[in-house]
């Protein structure tokens, strides 16, 4: 909307109540007409939209501006002879815009502040976990059978040292020693995974 853009061409001589009065026919600009609409109907429109926006002043101001843009886009609705005032039309458009905005907000997931995102632990996706599992499987195959048995029992099946010792028929100290050397061997084969294996 620029100065000099005529919105008034083709206006009937008798303007309905609520449109700018006192501006010469054919010489008013859209900016003047919208400014007059804002002055005359802005407060009641803002009050309605503030209530519909749950007290959010910024959102209500945005909705007032969007309502005035709709008025600028549809000057024929503002000049219908059937209206005594354009206020009901403006309030209806504003109310519908507020309802649409609320529905749009409810359809989107809630926004998360940056501080929450910075403190969120990054979790790898399924493909990364699957690739890591394949890498670990290949690395475990490089271990000696004795080290592999202890590692599988203690770390992958969750057996205690005593349970692994009983299952393998070896002393608990040997289970601990084999588990230590198995992890050390895996650290050499999987250098990128070393922090996870400590």
Detailed description of the structure:
The longest helix has 23 residues, at 30-52. With 198 residues, the chain is mainly alpha-helical. It has nine helices and no strands. Helix 1 packs across helix 2, helix 2 packs across helix 4 (87-107) and helix 8 (161-168) packs across helix 9 (172-189). The two termini are 66 Å apart. Residues 1-28 have low confidence and may be disordered. 63% of the residues lie in helices and 0% in strands.
Largest sheet: none
Structural class, by secondary structure, is mainly alpha
Relative strand content: under 5%
Flag low-confidence runs.
1-28
- Using the alpha-carbon principal axes, give the shape: rod-shaped
Strand and helix order: HHHHHHHHH
Assembly state: single chain
- Number of beta strands: 0
Q: DSSP helix count? A: 9
Helical residues, percent: 55-70%
């Amino acid at each position: 909307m620029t100065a000099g853009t005529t919105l008034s061409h083709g206006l009937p001589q008798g303007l309905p109540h609520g449109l700018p009065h006192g501006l010469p026919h054919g010489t008013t600009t859209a900016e003047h007409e919208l400014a007059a609409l804002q002055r005359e109907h802005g407060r009641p429109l803002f009050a309605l939209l503030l209530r519909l926006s749950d007290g959010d002043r910024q959102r209500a101001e945005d909705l007032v501006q969007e309502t005035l843009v709709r008025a600028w886009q549809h000057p024929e609705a503002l000049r219908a002879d059937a209206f005594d005032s354009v206020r009901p039309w403006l309030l209806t458009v504003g109310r519908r815009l507020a309802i649409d905005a609320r529905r749009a907000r409810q359809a989107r997931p809630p926004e998360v502040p940056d501080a929450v995102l910075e403190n969120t632990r990054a979790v790898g996706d399924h493909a990364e976990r699957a690739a890591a599992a394949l890498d670990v499987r290949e690395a475990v195959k490089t271990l000696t059978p004795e080290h592999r048995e202890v590692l599988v029992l203690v770390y992958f099946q969750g057996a205690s040292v005593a349970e692994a010792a009983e299952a393998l028929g070896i002393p608990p100290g040997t289970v601990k020693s084999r588990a230590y050397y198995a992890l050390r061997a895996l650290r050499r084969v999987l250098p990128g995974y070393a922090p996870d294996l400590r």
